[in-house]
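batch_manifest entry 22 of 60
target: ABC transporter permease
source organism: Ligilactobacillus salivarius
requested by: lab member K.T.
priority: normal
notes from requester: please return tokens only, no post-processing; we will run our own comparison against the previous entry in this batch. if the run fails, retry once and flag.
--- input ---
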Amino acid sequence: MKIFKKILMLLAVLMMVVTPFAAITADTTSSSSSADTAKTTDDSLKKVKEKGTLVVGLSADYPPYEFTTKQDGKTEYVGIDIQIAKKFAKDLGVKLVIKNMNFDSLLVALETGKIDTIISAMNPTEERRKSVDFSNIYYSGGKYIVINKKDKSKYTSKESFKGQTVGAQNGTLEYNLIKQQFPGATVKGLAKLNNLIIALQSGKVSGVLMEEPTAKAYVQNNPNLYAFNSKVSVDVNETGAAMAFPKGATALTQAANKTIADIKKQDLLDKEYVPEAAKYMKQSSKHNTMASYWTYFAKGIEYTLIITVVSVLIGFVLGIILALMRLGHNKLLHGLAVAYIEFIRGTPLMVQVMFVYFGIGAVIQSLPALAAGIIAVSLNSGAYVAEVIRSGIESIAIGQTEAARSLGMSQKQTYQYVVIPQAIKNIWPALGNEFITLIKESSIVSVIGVGDLMYQTQLVQSATYKGVAPLAITMVIYFVLTFTLSKGLNYFEGKMKHE
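--- output ---
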């Protein structure tokens, strides 16, 4: 009977681990067949209308396509793509929902159902067409190189970058164009365009390749920059910006094409969308002092503290359970604890965050980014806390346990009143280090669009066209948070030593 129970427990655990992978595999294998039957079974448009929202994924660091501005103390998404998204949602009769994340995460979010479409100045390359469907082109522009103005005479063409490093956003057509058409140049890819501009100004890269409107936007708002036409050769079918949809979402793609046709018919891009984006960019350049964006940093601190506090509590409880499982005599529970701890400690936290959000999130569609971030950070913290607690328990002399048991205490009472209290005193500094590390590591959740401090910093960078100043403020904020926590932990450590 005991063996049967252990087998059932093992099967249950295996199902919990395998289910997300199975769901993703099923989704991948079914994509080819769904494409064949899209004409008869496609209900993409119907689903959007039934839920009443159009979830649009974008990377809001790409003016004038999409960027942020402050209106009445609130963060607003503005730009050409935002206007197109608003019109598309209005034409469908649904509410628009914006999901801001790294550009190189957008296709994953689309394929796992976290968003309905990508409207982020995405080029419809042949490689991308294998995974997603694209609408018609809604805006075309050339590829420009942004350089430091002082290097104006040094760099005059793409050939002049031989032996130099040229930057481009990860996952973009520009990244591949540098590798293919910049002879002797090395490509440097980063997730955010703001960080590439910082790299340019600090001499890490000699130039940054981007869309013409975006290049001109940065130059207009930064007198130390200069832009010129790269004259790269681009396939006419791959250039320009288009909306991206899940493979087989024919009905939704056709609806987007109707919206694009209406935009072109009314000439809304030249008459309204581009001028309005330029207006917001001018406003940002006039009111781009760091003090005016204090609400961004305040909101980031709030989310960072929420993630840290909740993750600390969950991670501590999970760590105790895992430590006791590993120290116990039950081979199955011991094996599970060891496997979990080694697996979590052997994989990067960023990968874990993205797997929880995009992997498990593919099964649980309603899983919010904040919840996914907290779950991932908590599970990661639990593995490290478990090892800290285990080392603390093992540091207690066996005689303490034997003495407690000889006095008639049960194993539970022995751990509760004798072992754990002494172990906590021994491991308090190590636990403190883990908690402090957690505050800093929580910044990783910004990759899935959680509005923590790092995420808000990136918004300030894109809104002010300044790269270093927001980072300097963020460093100070993180230092204040960790220093305050460190002092608090030291206070309680001193109290415990005197008890």
